[in-house]
Amino acid sequence: MSGDFGGKSSAVTEETTGVLVRNGGGVPTPPPARSRRRGIGWAQRLEIAALSGPAILMFLGFVIFPILMAGYYGFYKWKGYGVPTNFVGLDNYKTILQDSAFRAALWHNGVIVVSSLVIQGPIALGLALLLNQKVRGQSAIRVLIFVPYVISEVIVGTAWSLLLQTSGAVNGVLDAMGLGSLKQDWLSNPKLAIWTLMFILTWKYVGFAVILFLAGMQNIPHELAEAAAVDGASYWQTQRRITLPLLAPTIRIWAFLSIIGALQLFDLVYIIWGQYVASTAGTSTMATYMVTEGRNAGNYGYGNAVAVVLFVISLFIALLYQRFVLRRDTEGALTEGT
Amino acid sequence: MTTSSERKPIVYFVALVLVGLMIGPVLYIITGGFRTNSQITVNPAGLPDPWEFGNYTGVLTSEVFWRQIGNSTIVAVATTVGVVTLGVMASYVLARYKFRGRGALYALFASGLMFPVTVAITPLYILVKNLGLVDTLPGVILPQIAFGLPTTVIILVPFLRAIPKELEEAAAIDRCGRLGFFWRMVLPLSVPGLITTGILAFIGSWNSYLLPLFILNNQDTFTLPLGVQAFASQYSVDTAKVLAFTSLSMIPALVFFSLFERRIVGGLTGAVKG
Q1: Residue B34, number of CB atoms within 10 A of its CB
Q2: A265 contacts A150 by C-beta, under 8 angstroms
Q3: How far apart are CA A28 and CA A86, in angstroms?
Q4: pLDDT tens per residue, range B65-95
């Protein structure tokens, strides 16, 4: 089983890192093969079209096309019926950028991006180091910490809002432990709510980071740690000088996924706080703002403009990250990918 | 060696606390469903005493629950079949044909990883509406297939590329064209990869919330996540019943996950590992 996956995932690794870097870096494919077979037969072209056509059409139709249309609708004041006619230019965008509710949401997204990295990263790293040792029941633990990741956001949200309500189980446990003074209004206290959200996010997604880091650690050859041990390195020295540097590419990919996920966070906030409470509790995000002000208010032109803003911000950060962070993975210092 | 055995107790302790934190809320949902509302009000964090089965039987005998299970199953199965079928065809082309624009095509699919459905949901809803698919299950299935393609392609292309060239040459000698090779050799050989991507698509669809929230407004077409939310707000005073409904609705994903855990973990780590 493990051998089966070992082989495959290392191949995948190369590919993925390659792609993420390529977008910023340049054209990939090895040139010689292409120039050798210049003309490909009609039969082959037909095969290529028949096999990849459906996927390309679906992808262009339902992923790329809507994003382009958002750019078009965003210039209109439009209720979503018929063809948009009321062209308002950049008015929607002006409104968005001047709306304090949007700026608050943007700020919350920023807080969530940064604290996801700062909170989940070290915790996941520590846990992965812990589980990377020979521990009995390791595979069971791996399954169990992954459970929150597999449960749907709706269930997680429903469960935690019941647990955390003022008369819920969390405050009940605090009471039972004689810590009644620590009881809080976890969900609606605006000073606290975003940290409650961070706690739930950590609970839900830390297992994913741990699994990634563990997989990365198991790719690091044992010989390195053994050699370090022969040289008299302590456990912590070995982790700091060998494991962490060699794990850096994995950490960078995880951070990328975490940032993208945090920028587009919607489900948990919308389920726990709903469309009206989120902004007063200080947990609204750009995505919940988009749904509340766009679809729920019936202002589709405006909603699409918010989608464009969300898209541009995500794209900008993704490209910046690939340009300045993931790029390092190609510079040879960390070529452990073999 | 000695240091590692000294650390062992701490390791076990931390692991235990961790597992408790991760599983505690899940156990709370499940056991909470076996309590009555007065038990929950009096002692929010206690165990069932006595055990109350009415909540679970109530949900299990309700038509709404089974209809939502049915809708979720239809959507998840159709999404999985669509994603895997289209994905393996496109991946085969990307992995084993040489043609101009191949790199660009791959980059196009890979770019989809950067943009989950959130960014496109508002215009996507309008597109689905114009296609007349609002309040229908295909209105959820088709976009889900499209948004599932990037992960599938990223996982399958290297998988298919790893099939030895000799096999293809041998097939060519036997007058088996590339399409024949695809049918007779590639598909059987790539079953493990297809299962991984299929499971990821299935669980993603089973848990999906935002897209059904936009597309499905009619209660009869609700999938489970929408159902859980509707149930929770409809019976907001009946906490025990909500907990029973919630825990029953997470069973399919949990069973599916524990059956295929190794493959899911393998697929995920494979897809994003650096």
Answers
A1: 21
A2: no
A3: 44
A4: 899 999 999 999 999 999 999 999 999 999 8
- The domain of A279 spans 100-153+185-329
Segment A307-335 mean pLDDT: 75
Q: Are A261 and A150 in contact (CB under 8 A)?
A: no
| Inter-chain contacts counted by CB atoms under 8 A, chains A and B | 325
- Helix intervals (H) in A41-168: 42-59, 65-73, 91-98, 100-115, 121-131, 138-150, 153-164
- DSSP secondary structure letters along A31-48: HHHHHHS----HHHHHHH
Cα angle at B186 between B181 and B190, to 5 degrees? 175
Domain count across chain A: 1
SS3 string, B13-72, reads HHHHHHHHHHHHHHHHHHHHCCCCHHHHHHCCCCCCCCCCCHHHHHHHCCHHHHHHHHHH
> So what's the pLDDT on residue A40?
66
Cβ–Cβ < 8 Å for B269, A215: yes
Q: How far B95 CA lies from chain A's nearest CA (Å)?
A: 11
Q: What is the pLDDT of residues B194-215, one digit of tens each?
A: 888 888 888 889 889 999 999 9
Contacts of A135 in chain B (CB under 8 A): 8, 11-12, 15
Mean per-residue pLDDT of chain A = 79
This prediction's pTM = 0.82
Cβ <8 Å between A47 and B157:
no
Classify domain B64-233+250-272 at the CATH superfamily level. Answer: MetI-like (1.10.3720.10)
CB contact under 8 A, B45 and A169: yes
Furthest CA-CA distance within chain A: 79
Per the CB < 8 A criterion, the answer to whether B127 and B215 are in contact is no
Q: A329 CB near a chain B CB, below 8 Å?
A: yes
Q: How far apart are CA B251 and CA A145, in angstroms?
A: 17
User: ipTM greater than 0.90, yes or no?
Assistant: no
- With contact defined as beta carbons under 8 Å apart, do A96 and A306 qualify? yes
Does the residue A201 lie in any domain? yes
Domain ranges within chain B, ordered by starting residue: 64-233+250-272
pLDDT at B6: 56
Distance of CA A93 to the CA centre of its chain: 26
